[in-house]
Structure formats: structure tokens, C-alpha cells
Specification:
The complex is a heterodimer of chains A (782) and B (326). Chain A folds into five domains: 137 residues, Rossmann fold (3-Layer(aba) Sandwich); 186 residues, FAD/NAD(P)-binding domain (3-Layer(bba) Sandwich); 76 residues, 2-Layer Sandwich (Alpha-Beta Plaits); 152 residues, FAD/NAD(P)-binding domain, CATH 3.50.50; 59 residues, Alpha-Beta Plaits. Helix content of chain A is 30%, strand content 22%. In chain A, strand 25 and strand 26 form a beta hairpin. The two termini of chain A are 24 Å apart. Chain B has 16 helices and seven strands. Chain B starts with 8 loop residues before the first strand and ends with a helix.
Chain lengths: 782, 326
Amino acid sequence: MSKAQLNKNKSNLKIGVFLCRCGGNISDIIDMEKLRLSVKAEVIEEFENLCSINGRKIIRDNIIKKNLDRVVVAACSPITHEKTFQNYVSPLNPYLLEMANIREQCSWVNPDNITATEKAISIVNAAIEKVKYSQPLVPILRKTPNTAAVIGGGISGISASLSLARQGIETYLIEKEPTIGGSMVKVGKLFSPEKLAEECAMCLLNPLVNEAVQNKNINIITNTTLKSAERRAGNFNLLIENKARKVITDRCISCGNCAEVCPVEVKDSWNEGMTIRKAIYKPFSQAVPDVYTIDPENCKKCGKCQDVCRMDAIDLTMEDEIIPMTVGSVVIATGHKTFDMNKRPEYSYGRHKDILTQMELARVMGVNGPTKGELLKPSDGKVPQRVVMIQCVGSRDEKPGGRKYCSKVCCMVAIKHANVIKQHYPDTDVIIGYTDMRTPGMYEKYFKYAQSNEVRLIRGRPGEIEEKDGIFIVRLEDTLSKEPLEIETDLVVLSTAMEPSEGTVDVSNILDVGLTEELFVKEKHSKIKPVATEVEGIYVCGTAQGPKDITDSIVQANAASAKVSELINGGVELEPFVANIDNSKCNLCKKCIDVCKYKAAFIQDNMLSVDPVACVGCGACLWECENNAIEIIGQTDEQILSMITGMLKDKKPDETRIIAFLDSVGYVSADNIGINKINVPSSIRIIKIPSMNRIMPKHLLHAFNMGADGIIMGEYPYNPMYSKTKEKVNGLKQELIKNNINPDRLAFYKVYIPYFRGLANKFNKFNNQIIELGKIGSKIDS
Amino acid sequence: MKTIPDKDILLFKSCLVNVEYPGVESSACYIFDKVGVEYYVDKRQSCCTGLGHYYDLFDQLSTTALAARNFHIAAKTNHKNIVTLCATCYAILKKTVKILNYNEDARNKVNTILDESGLPEMEYTQDDMDPSKNIFHIAEILFNKRDEISKYITVDLSEFKIATHHACHYCKVHYNDTIEGVREPNLMDGIVNAMGIDTIGWYDHKRVTCGAGFRQRFTNKEISLAVTSEKLEVLEDKNVEILLHMCPNCQMQFDRYQPYIEKKLGKKFNIFHLNITQYIALAMGADPYSVLGIQTHTVPIEPLLKRLKQKYDLKEDNRLKTLKSV
């Protein structure tokens, strides 16, 4: 596309350019006179402080008197004052304003008057060229429907659902197991920082579960998993699969006659496999919903249960069902699992009955557990004389198969169980072998309390547990006294690491939510956006996000529900710079849908649409679209090409110019270079682009055609599309080779806001590299 | 799972193998020839320095320089996949590749030494070798070929109770590259299982060192041998008859010192010590003397051979005489 074509029909537009001296910040370096004479516009005004109220009068008066169609303000960074000037251009549409950043990215980084002035001219020209293609726009206001899906029915999911329901939001609580309650129903007692006593978990959970059952806004859907998810116009269309319970919920009165006659016996997972249940069962007496369930893997379909059921509630022909639902937001509360003890053969777990995990011990000591709450060894039913607990089993472990992180709750869990044992069996010796005791905040009191109960602590991580003549030998080094020890004991309890559950990984993959290296759900920002995920409208709480205790899980659940509520009540005002579809060109090939990690594109009524809430305008879909049916508003090809043109059109033959495409993070970083008054080469010309995915070969070739000597692309690496960007850069380099341009003329950098010095160094290095390469077309290029 | 080569192999000679149990190398060659592993042995190759290095006689720089020389031989002969018979060589070579690739200073120093010695062709360029893709222990190659190996078994060894002793410097040093278990090493168990024979699997002290600890064997003999005897006692409790080794240093510690420990404890351990290569070669029908080299063992292997259906021409008496004269 030639320059003449680009400017067709745009030459009649009346453009006003307003130059700010910024109290000398700009005018001390830049020759304002020369700048004024070098740009072409209907109106060119210069003022000391354009952002002041007087500046507003100048701009507004000119717009009204001279009938201006577009405005360029050449001043500071748009990050500082774009909102101000968008207000000042009223009655013009705010999106018909373009800012030329001649302070942070020019006068503050370029002390030489001549080159700084040349740079300012090209920055202003680029803004003029771009603004010609600007369209009047309105910010997008979105409201999400008053519904939410909470995936996972543990304490986090129940808490989130209750909070949502109490705010009047219709909530679907989806649980994979036949009952809600999660891990909390199994742990028996709870530790708490304030009270030095252990409280009954079931007693605290039951009222919450009952409220969830009774609340009209909560639909509890058990035996159900998420199968697929689609994003549509701020909604999520979910397909959930309900595993056939083979018991009609409305009819079952939970009498238990069926289980009595069932001939199939299997290990009861609710008691960690330490007891037996039947193929038709209710996990525990307070299970919700209060009905029996057939486990299809083990049921032999003998029909005996049907014979004894007086309610005619059993239907062995019942089939799994796929259910569609539409919700406005999703909360992931899929929880954790515990470390696979097969990865620790040296602890002999599985080889001996009396080596338990903390969860198994919780069942043993649970009043509704296999021994009705008595601490009895599984092997012989006797009370142990000594219990040795081993901390950090799988946690804080750098070796293969280990988890590098601290599981955060195990110290308190061990102390809790040690206290309970000491209270009921004072003659049983309890030893905790620990790496470090981590009892932050108020839990330190709880730790002291355990010590006062004569729980013994040895600092050291055992190497092995062996059995000799019916006695376990725990080998460890007391790392304080540096003595190797062999502790004899008759019961060992392992504090196993918390790991992401399979459900957490599956659900995140279905929802396209990012995971951490450890496969927990990744937050949008771990410091300041702790429950948001990378997908707008999807939130996370509880141990799906990382190891944490019940208190923290509930706090996070409430935070997640507040975020859902924000979206529903406040809606969101969004910049309209998103993908726009020309449906006359779209052939519904769906490639854009496949590439979009933000789940922004979708097909509805045979039409491709983009959810402006989800879309960030990164432009990755443009590459996939064969028919050029997509454009990014505010970053159309014309706008990008014209900015490039503006930056390069007055380039002198002996001059070097480098175009730097920076994403919003890179742009802020470049501003920081200016704020810190670090010099950058005069050749650098910065163009802000939402994502490097937007940059296509035609943009690069246009820049090189217009005289660019080199191009830099800078992108913040922690965005979901970053891997795509990296792939693309290689493709772009290939494209340059095809056009006889040395691929070294294109550089790709990671950018970070605080590392502005690094970016300045890169500008310098690349500039030197380009000077070494010489002019385009010299023999190095071919 | 990492890719394990079966060709372009430089079978890396080991000092301890050649001096103490040369049958380990000949057994390895015997197996490789049978199952079609392409390998090469180069007599120019020098020692990895491991023993001297852990005795503080060789510093890291000379160790690295010698390694660079060996890597040059491997590359020059188109046998870049180095396969060691000894766990010390394995860990030392991996470490030196890492140093040469990641430590520019060290690389420059080594290259200067090579230059000054008139060997500029041996200079090491970054990434000439890959620590994970070019350095292997022979047990890994055998594990990879275990199904092939099982086809050549002619001698029935199933009547013996077998345990495995996995070398520390294979399992515990570069543990991200270790296959078949770091915490529960099962590399040799896997090979033996593929031959249709069960091992005792896990046992107390399975992961524990042989006790040699390089110079510890000499400077802290009591501690060193205490570790060895503890392991022997566990194996004895389990009625183990053959302990399989994958490192000549471990093999020495057990085979050479078992009679000494027996004398000290006043008890008899009926445990034979064989390297995994010797064990496979024996099962494949190799000659106990010319291939397995059992005449160099301290704990006689002849009683084991006598229990086999296969008849061997045993030279037990000669061997004992030789030993006594020593």
C-alpha cells in the first residue's frame, strides 16, 4: 500500500496540533519553532502548560472555532495525561485525540537539541498520520448475568456458593463426588490459632452445608464433572456430565436397607480405604444430598437392592447425562490431593499397616471413623506406645518427584493430632521429626501449647523407616545436635504434601485458565489480583490455587464471590480496542477461536462474534484469518502503517532509524527510561502496540521500505499469548530473509516495567549492531 | 524418558575395571556384540581422574582438561556417546561437560592449557557435548536392550536369590538424569526382571552407600567397613546369594572386604558379588574365566558355578594358590 493510497480521503480532515512546552521540560531541549514549522495541520498551537485549565480553553476554542475533526496533543506520555486531554477535546469524541509522547520518550532521553527535535517531529507526524484513521468510539460497558458456577464442593466451593447466593446470585455448585463436603468432612478436628483447643470439623461444616441445601439460589449438583466450556458474550456456556447415581434422589429415604443386602464389598475411600463399604452406599451419615449412590465400577447389577427398596428408588438402567448451562462467572474450587506415597519407598508406606498418612490418622481418630475415634493401630488394634510424625513428606523437596514448595498446613496438622493424642492418651509418646516448624502468626501460640503438652520435637528429616521384628526404626539425623538417631516406634504418621488435584488440572484446561509450574491455578497477579485468573470472569479459591488451610480457603472463597458480584453489579467499562469482525468476509473456519487463549471469539447463530470483555486486542487471530475478516479497533492496518509512515517519512539519507514496537508494559518501561533521564539513541522511534502478535510481515516490510534500519519488538512475557509471539518472531525473520533483509535487523526482547535500564541497554546495543550492519541493501543483507 | 543410544558408543575404559575386575569390560563387549550395540574402545583414552580427584590429588581444572581431551577423542572417532563402566566416571564426565558448557572461564583455561600443550585441535567449544544426551552408564544401555538381552539367555540362574546395589554416583549425583528411580533405584532390578528372574526388590539399606567413600576406606576404615557390614548383614538376613553391582568401586568394597568383615564379625556371608555385565554374560553362556574374569574375584565364584546345570572347567585350586601367594 502506497502512502498516497493510505491518505486518500483523509487529506480533507481538519487536524489541530497542540504543542506543550511543559514548563521547559520539553522546550528546553526541543526547538519548538522548528517543530511547529515542520508539521502540517489546520491549527498548530503552542502553550506553556497544556494540561492546565487554560490549556483546555485553547484546545476547546480551536476545536469549536476551526471546526477541527481530529486533535493531536504533543506533550507528555499518554499514561500521564491522556484521560485529561480526552476530556479537554469535548465536544469531539475522546477517541479522536492522539497523543505524541515528546517528553518521556524524547526530550528526557535525548539531550541533543538537533536530534531531539528531529525525533519530536517524527513522533508528532506519526500521531497526525494515525489520528486520521481514528474513529469515534464509546467505551464498552458490560454487565454479566446474575448466575455463577462453582466447581468443587469442598469448604471453598461451599463458602463461595453461600456468599454468592446470599447476594442473590443464582449459583450452581458442581461436585464430582456423590456428596459435598470435600476434605473437611474427613479431617475430624480443626486447628485454630485463637483457641488452643481442637474443634469438631463436622460441627462447623454442617450448618454451612444445611444452609447451602436450603438456599434457593444454590443448586447442588453432585456426581458431576465439567466436560467443556465456551465463552459467549460475557457468558460461559458449560456442558456438565452427571454420572448416573442409579438411585432416584426424590424417592430415596436413605434407610440403608439396600446397602445391607448388597453383596459387593469395596474399600471405603471416605475412610481412606481402612474400612469396607458396599457397591450401593452413602459416603457418611451426614452426606448431602442424603441419598444412596451406586458405584458403577463395582456394582454387579444383581438387583438385590431393588428387591428390598420399598420406595422403588433404584433404577439400574439410569444413564449418565450431559447437561448444558449458561453462567456469567465461574469459580474454580477444585481443591487438592495428597502426595502419592509410592514416590517415597524409603518410608515403607504400603508395606506396613501401621505407617499412616495424617489424613488416615484423622480418620482413625475421627469419631465417625473405623475405630470410632479410638487411637488403635490398624495392625493389631492396640494403642501405640509411641507415634513418630514425619514432616515435609513430598514438600520442600528438590529431588525428582518432590514438590519444591512448603505445603503450609502440615505443621499445624501434626501439632493438632499430637495434641489430640496427648489429651486422650497421655502415656503415648509423640515425636515430630520436622524440617522447620512453620507456625506463622497466631499459630505460634498453638505450637507452644503442643510443647507444653509434652509433644517432643526433633529437627531432622528421616531418611528411612524400616521394620525389624515388628518394630519400626525411624532413621534421622538430629540436625541440631548433629547426632544420627534411630527411633523405635510402633506407629508412624507421614505429613504428606498438598498437590493440585486432577480436577484442578482438568477444569483449568477446559476453561483455558493458566496453571503454575506446580499445576495449581495461576492467578492473574499473585500479589494484587489474588483470586482472578487470566480469563476475565473466572476466579479461583481454596487449595486449587495453592496449599492453604480452611481459614484462608474461606477468605479466598469470599473474595472470589465479591469479584463475581463486582462484575454483575458494577459491570466493567472497557476500552473499545478489541477485535472487530467483518461477517461478510468470515467463512466460519474457527481458526481464530482455536488460537485465542482468552476465549474471546465464539460463533453464535452462524456468526462469528467477539466478547469485548475477554478480548484484549492482541491480534493473534489476524494471523489465522485467511479472509482478512478481523481488524483490531484502534490498531487497524491503516493506523499501524500510517504511524510507521509518520515516524519515517522525513528520514535523511545518512540517518539511522529504528522502530521499536512495544506492548503496554514495554511502553511504561520506556517512559521510565525518560523519568530516570537515561539516554537512548536518537534513532529509536517507539510505537505502542497492544501485543506483538499484532505485528505482521506487511508492517515490518513497510517500515523497511520507508527506510527503517532495524526493528525492535518488546513484549511482557507473562501473558497467555506469549508463546505464540515467540513462534511468530521466527516466522517474521523468515519473511525478512525471503525479502533479502538480514533477520538480525529484527530483535525481540522481553520487557518488564522495573527493568527499564535493561531496555535502555538493549536499545543501545541494538543501535550499535544496526550501525555495524550498515545500510539496508549492503552485502550483509543479501 | 531420555533417549538411550545403541550405536556410536565410546565404551569408556575404567581404571578400577581394568586393574581390579577386567572381566567387567570383556563381559560388556561380549553382551554388546551379542545384542548388536555398536561401540568402540580407544586406547588413547585417559582416566577420568575420579579416584585421584576424590582423594584431592587432582583438582577440578586438570580433571576438566583431561575430560576435554577424552571428549575430543570421542568426537574425532565419531563415537560421541560415552558409556562408562564405572559410576565415578559417569558422574565426573557429566560434571565436566556441565563445567565446559556453562563456565566460560573454566573453558577458556582448559583451552589455554590444550593450546600451550600443542593440542589446539582438542579445544572444547561450548555444547560440543551434552551432559544428558552424550554421557551414559552401561547399566542404562543394558536396561534399554533388556528385551533383546533376554533372547540370548542360555544359562538358568533363577535358583539364586538376588539383590541389587545401585551406585551412589549414578543415582544421587546427577539425579535429574537418573532413570528407574532415585529414591528407589530399580535400574538393575529391571534388567534382571526382563531376564525372567525376580530380585528381592526393596530391602533395608538398599540405597545406602557401599561404604568405600574413596579415601574413607583407608583413612576412616572403621566407619567405612561398618557401613559395608551393616548392608551385608541385612542381605544375609534376607538370604541373598548374589549381590549385583554397577560400579567397580562398590564391587571392590564388597568383594575384597567381605572375607575381612567375616573374620571380624566371626560369621560367614554366603554372598557372591557380580557386576551386572558379568551376570548377564554368564547367563548368556560366556566363559567364566576368559570373559567374566572370575579369577580376579576375592569371594570365589566357583561355588556358584558348581550349582549350575551348565558344566564348567573350573580352576578353583589354581586361583586359591595365586591368592595365597599374594
